[in-house]
Design a protein that fits this description.
alpha/beta, five-stranded parallel beta sheet, 16 strands, 48% helix, Rossmann fold
Length: 456
């Protein structure tokens, strides 16, 4: 048997790594080794491993923590945990978080060989069941606008043109980016996603372009950045609107020259990467306001794609509702949704988009006691709190009519006024996350410079 790709073994004990490498090599597998979780993450950034075998107890980044990071970097990779009897509970928890299985030490060679073979088989079965161009998490829609968008995305995926995805938070920007990757000729290469807002501005350059050993305090070893990690594949730059002006200039050069320069090095390195950028901001407005470079904007938006918010495609609410109910019901079996609950869900504006709908459904399924979900299961605060009813479904007092976007903004402004600018309470009142509220306010400020009430 000669499977595609290498098996990555992660263990801080050299003899254990050597023993597992010999077993898998004799079985016909190509093998890479990593001494700890951090080294393994570096390897995952630069190669697509079908299976990773990792110890649970390791210094620095342990196996369970490594699993969470690995699932973000490479969702298609199967992870097997190796554990001693005393850490079985940790391994079981890892399986709950997405690991395929765990192997108890000590184990005979055939146990490891069989576990890796089953993981390879499960991965190949998933790949065979998914047609080219379908994302790992399918994009479900009945809306004509979304269907036209996906058709355009399929055609755009065949090229190497840079793509800019614009959508509100929770609408599925990363899902569409993965759809583009899997529909492209680069589908066998890595897909690397970077949230530009998740790193301090002084560290984002190192994350993107890498650094040499000693380039700055704390750089104890060289590291390749996400551009190199995505070589021959796709790099998603999420929240691109949060990038500093200085880093925007460096990114523009990388896109033009197709080469990166690690911090602390003089010689550039060639990279072959398809870049997809995404944002919940109106970048054209940011350009007009001086907050984003015009030349970078045009370089990124060779093919612009806008995902319509869920409130603009009400036909998708029942479809997504059925899907999430089935996913979270699991072994309980399908749950029915009452007509009144369906009407209430379809009438909701979903300011948090698909993510909000998924969270509402998951909560309802987990907490429901019966076989039919009613309004109170999806919106329990409306059943118990008059203030909650008014804040989420009541009339917009003082509202004189307009578009849905204007109504949403009116509701947010009213909530901020009623809570004295407390963003946490205002978000709860409107029914969205604090992060979504913060993104909305940032978008309003970019659009017209208006400073809304601020608070905690």
């Amino acid at each position: 048997m000669s499977p595609t790709g290498k098996i990555l073994i992660v263990d801080d004990e050299p003899q254990m790594r050597l023993a597992m490498t010999r077993v898998l090599t004799r079985a016909g597998y190509a093998v890479d080794e990593a001494r700890d979780g951090l080294e393994a993450l570096d390897k995952l950034r630069g190669a697509a491993y079908p299976v990773v075998v990792t110890d649970v107890r390791m210094p620095g980044l342990d196996g369970v923590a490594f699993l969470g990071r690995a699932r973000e970097l490479s969702p298609a990779t199967e992870v097997l945990m190796i554990t001693a009897y005393g850490t079985v509970q940790s391994a079981v928890e890892a399986v709950r978080r997405g690991a395929r299985d765990y192997i108890l030490k000590p184990f005979p060679p055939e146990v490891l060989e069989r576990a890796v073979g089953e993981a390879i088989g499960a991965r190949e079965d998933r790949a065979a069941a998914a047609p080219p161009g379908s994302a790992s998490k399918r994009i479900l829609t009945r809306d004509p606008k979304m269907e036209r968008l996906l058709d355009r995305a399929r055609r755009a995926a065949e090229s190497d043109a840079t793509i800019l995805i614009q959508a509100e938070s929770g609408a599925g920007k990363e899902l569409l980016a993965r759809f583009l990757h899997e529909a492209s000729p680069r589908r066998d290469g890595p897909f690397v996603a970077v949230n530009c807002a998740a790193f301090p501005r002084e560290l984002l350059e190192s994350e993107l372009f890498g650094h040499a050993r000693g380039a700055f305090t704390g750089a104890v070893r060289e590291r390749r950045g996400h551009f190199e990690a995505a070589h021959s594949g796709t790099l998603l730059l999420d929240e691109i609107g949060e990038m500093s002006a200085a880093l925007q200039a460096k990114l523009l050069r990388v896109l033009q020259e197709r080469e990166v320069q690690r911090l602390g090095e003089e010689a550039p390195r060639r990279v072959d990467v398809r870049v997809v950028a995404s944002t919940n901001l109106d970048l054209a407005a940011a350009v007009r306001g001086g907050g984003f470079r015009e030349d970078l904007y045009f370089r990124l938006s060779v093919i612009p794609l806008r995902i319509p918010p869920l409130r603009e495609r009400p036909e998708d609410v029942p479809l997504l509702l059925e899907h999430f109910c089935r996913v979270y019901a699991g072994k309980r079996g399908p749950l029915a949704v009452s007509p009144s609950a369906m009407d209430r869900l379809c009438a909701h504006s979903w300011p948090g988009n698909v993510r909000e709908l998924e969270n509402v459904v998951q909560r309802a399924v987990v907490l429901a006691s019966g076989e039919e979900l009613d309004v109170a299961d999806f919106f329990p605060e409306e059943a118990s709190s008059p203030a909650g009813r008014e804040g989420r479904a009541g009339p917009l007092h003082g509202w004189r009519g307009g578009t849905l976007d204007q109504a949403e903004r009116f509701l947010i402004e009213e909530a901020l006024v009623r809570t004295g600018g407390n963003r946490t309470r205002a978000a709860s009142l409107v029914g969205i996350s604090v992060r979504t509220l913060r993104n909305k306010l940032r978008g309003y400020k970019v659009a017209d410079g208006k400073n809304l009430p601020t608070g905690s």
